[in-house]
Amino acid sequence: MSYVQDAIKVVTGDRTDSYGNPKADFEGTALIWNGILQHKLHAPITAQDVPLLMIGLKLRRQAYQHKDDNWVDIHGYALCAEWMETGIKPE
Predict the structure, then answer these.
(1) For the segment 17-59, what is each residue's pLDDT rounded down to a tens digit?
(2) 21, 31, 47, 73: which could form a disulfide with 26 (CB 3.0–4.6 Å)?
(3) Helices (H), the chain
(4) pTM
(5) What are the domain boundaries of the chain?
(6) Residue 34, by phi and psi: left (phi above 0), alpha (psi -120 to 50) or beta?
(7) Looking at residue 19, what is its pLDDT?
(8) What is the b/e burial string over 5-35, where b = at least 16 CB atoms within 10 angstroms of the residue's CB?
């Protein structure tokens, strides 16, 4: 199975079952991050920013130490961003 196929399985299965639709999950995450960082931000973090920031985190971890999980998560966050933008659940 490829990283993308693994990511689709995780995003549309386990993660959605555990955390709900990515848009709602990322909106909640953005609210928390805004609360923590409000004194440092010039503009609020949005739900669409969350997967990009998480991809950045995973890229940093991958640069430190290779793990297949990082690649799966990078693809998964990209799929979530696309899902939020298009409204089409990945298959």
Answers:
(1) 888 889 999 999 999 999 999 999 999 999 999 999 999 999 9
(2) 47
(3) 3-9, 15-19, 22-37, 49-64, 68-86
(4) 0.88
(5) 3-86
(6) alpha
(7) 86
(8) ebbbebbbeebbeeeeebbebbeebbeebee
